[in-house]
Amino acid sequence: MADGDWDGPTVALRARARAKRFRLVSLEKDYDMPKRVLLGLLLACGLAAPALAQEPKTGGVINAVIQPEPPGLMLAQVQNGPTQMVSGNIFEGLLRYSPKLDPLPELAESWSVSEDAKTYIFKLKKGVTWHDGKPFTAADVLFSIEMLKQTHARARTNLAQVDKVETPDDHTVVFTLKQPFGPFLGIFEVGSMPMVPKHLYAGTDWKTNPYNNAPIGTGPFMFKEWQKGSFIRLVKNPNYHEKGKPHLDEIYWQIIPDAAARSVAYETGKVDVLPGGSVENFDVPRLSKLKDTCVTGAGWEFFSPLAWLWLNNRQGPLADKRVRQAIMYAVDRDFAKDVIWNGLGKVATGPSASTIKFYTDDVKKYPYDPAKAKALLKEAGYKGEKIRLLPLAYGETWQRWGEAVKQNLQDVGMTIETIATDVAGGNQKIAEWDYDIAFTYLYQYGDPALGVGRNYISSNIAKGQMFNNVEGYSNPDIDKLFAEGAVATPDSKRKEIYEKAQKILVEDVPVAWMLELQFPTIMRCKVKNLITTGIGVNDGFKDAWLDK
Amino acid sequence: MLSFVAQRVLKGVIVLLAIVVLNFFLIRLAPGDPAIVMAGEAGASDQVFVKQLREKFGLDKPLPEQLFIYVKGVVSLDLGFSFRQQAPVAKLIGERLPATLLLTLTAFAISLTLGILFGTFAARFAGTFLDTAITVFALIFYAMPIFWVALMGILLFSVTMDWLPSFGYETVGANLTGLAHAFDVAKHLIMPAMTLGLFFMATYTRMTRASMLEVKRLDFVKTARAKGLSDAVIQRRHVLRNALLPVVTLAGVHSGTLIGGAVITETVFAWPGIGRLMYDALLQRDYNLLLGVFVICSAMVLTFNLITDLVYRLVDPRIEYAA
């Protein structure tokens, strides 16, 4: 696309754009420099190419499981997994991300980045309407940003680098950053920055707005009905802005609280899709062998859930790096992967999952080596002091994993006491630093600046808060590297910085990294194209169709 | 009788308020901060967000003030707002209450009817094979955990035989109306109601049997027999009626336990009732919702107990209302 084809911005903006020497070149021409200019439409076509091998069929109903029942569907105000899984069909973001985490168009049809990497211009798709028929415009984007800053903690953090947002016309949004922010193009998926209809929310009490219970979005499916405790029904948006989509007529999200009952519902044909994490892992091999059943671990690349053991660096034996390293050697992570997780996932090599940007495996390795663990414990002077282990109260799989780790650690001579608690109680103990070892898993959101650094930088040590640096690890070198990594340009520089950070962290073992988790999605083979992006089932079913 | 009912209702209100105050403190004794739970679900860790949530929940206020606000609300029939679910607590409970009432009342009817029936037969044929068979049958369901009976039921009647649906309140997407809808709900109700009902049936069976055997030995039964009444009439009019008093007492006590059992049954069968709502609220430390469910459940138990007292009078006219 040449500069002349770029329609829409005001003259002033054009002048400023020229002053900043925008380069708007085609993706084909500049494929090796995706950070410079991205015209996602072409990428989207490329991604969809294999799917085109079979012509999608229109019509049909999908029954999928949702667990637990979402507390609400207003994605801008309620941010949890089940809400996004359902509302990812109702709402949309400006972008989506491919399994390789390249941006793809959604409500923005194209975007460009200035030479100094401080100005991002998004061209919005024309002809997009909200489910109530009103047009979607740049004013909605501006309003959404203002709302999200108050209601969406992650969006607020992500937008902290934004100096100002301007809307020179109805279909152009210009973000000006205070300084370059490497992962900026990675913050626009529907869960991270859902678009909210200004005409329905502006000037209202957002908390009690009636549209919270009957959400209006621009997405491929419209909210129809929610029988609390039973099901949520979405129906096709006939005016969806992508011609020919969605292919399905309806989606029923069935609420089945018990894991065994969810398995039975699939076995008896009552549901067609079990999204990742719906059933206990030990049920996955059995269900996978059922007739006409397909399983995929794809669709988690953006979130890249990484499981680890928080190690309280502040006190007792775990304050000694050698004891923490001994834990890495003592835990049989291959066993956990093969037996507890049925071979799904990957043994973690460090703080970054292999699916996110700037990952390196050129770090110190910790194979299962109980003898080495014992030697390190001896060297550190560990004398059998009691260590408290908090398993994660997320069901049987996590309970079993807790037992396996306890056994591993006892085998090398550590005295482990398991603390039984529910999720809320466990979180409080961790937030108050009242633990020694605790299981967790966290999303990484595609970029170390978004989902990795938060757990290791010392400014994130705050008692009473969860999911930050609760282990109390403090290293000025790491603080500096993560601060530099977020704003460095170009990507090669960021790569260098983050690789260095990974090496230091893996040597220091502030936490014990376990597995890159994979939550398999189980579905009938007749369900096609369910997962087409790195956001997977959390990104809506607009590409999905039924091969009846 | 009216003054008796009024007196009991007044006492009930006082008990209810005491329950509210007690539960208000009890649930705060459990570790776990609702703001941290919500922040965790949002994948957020920043202090501003957690502080905002605490302010929204009113958790930043001193505990006595929080209690005062809550009790004031309950007295004016306002059960508060669930911040996690972003809806008034009364609305959330109202959506689920009918399903729980349908389940528990059906289970209650099943357990009481079958329990009294089997107990009567066991007493009538005490010491015979039938007596042993009934006792063993009842105890099997009493001894097995509810979730296990539920899962075995699903395996047998849904997976293997495909007779009954394994989960839910109705066939989703069928859009049935009228009688067809009622039949559909009934079909979904069979397994959960039987699972819950059979568990409680055992105690009624045992209680009816023991009580009837005891009454049978009393002099007035001999008198009835001496005046030439048939065995069936003696059993029904004299023995059973007198033997029912302890069963009625037990039924009143069970009304609370039944709701507890409904939590498990509703979970396994995905029955959209308040049992599951309560369980989720507890896990998420949704204080207002949890307290709201407690208030409603307590009110239900108190109502059941009032009904029990009234039924006493029906069963045994000698009992006076001047309690």
UniProtKB/TrEMBL annotation, chain A:
Domain Solute-binding protein family: residue ranges:
103-448
InterPro entries registered for this protein in UniProt: Peptide/Ni-bd, SBP_5, SBP_5_dom
Compartment(s): Periplasm
UniProt entry keywords in alphabetical sequence: Signal
> What's a BP term from Gene Ontology annotated to this protein?
peptide transport
Name a single GO cellular component. ATP-binding cassette (ABC) transporter complex
What molecular functions are annotated in GO for this chain? peptide transmembrane transporter activity
The organism's place on the tree of life at top rank:
Bacteria
| Pfam families reported in the protein's UniProt record | SBP_bac_5 (PF00496)
Q: Give the principal location in a single coarse category.
A: periplasm
Family the UniProt entry places it in: Belongs to the bacterial solute-binding protein 5 family.
Q: What is this protein called?
A: Peptide/nickel transport system substrate-binding protein
Query: Which organism does this sequence originate in?
Result: Bradyrhizobium yuanmingense
Please spell out the taxonomic lineage of the organism that makes this protein.
Answer: Bacteria, Pseudomonadati, Pseudomonadota, Alphaproteobacteria, Hyphomicrobiales
UniProtKB/TrEMBL annotation, chain B:
Q: Name one GO cellular component term.
A: plasma membrane
**Pfam families, from UniProt?**
BPD_transp_1, BPD_transp_1_N
Q: Where are the transmembrane segments?
A: 12-30, 101-122, 134-157, 189-207, 243-269, 289-312
Q: Note the Gene3D superfamilies from the entry.
A: MetI-like
Q: Which UniProt keywords apply?
A: Cell membrane, Membrane, Transmembrane, Transmembrane helix, Transport
Q: Which residues form the signal peptide?
A: none
- Residue ranges the record marks as coiled coil: none
What compartments host this protein? Answer: Cell membrane
What family does this belong to? Belongs to the binding-protein-dependent transport system permease family.
Q: What is this protein called?
A: Peptide/nickel transport system permease protein
Q: Which residues form the ABC transmembrane type-1 domain?
A: 97-308
Give the membrane topology: Multi-pass membrane protein
What is the species of this protein?
Answer: Bradyrhizobium yuanmingense
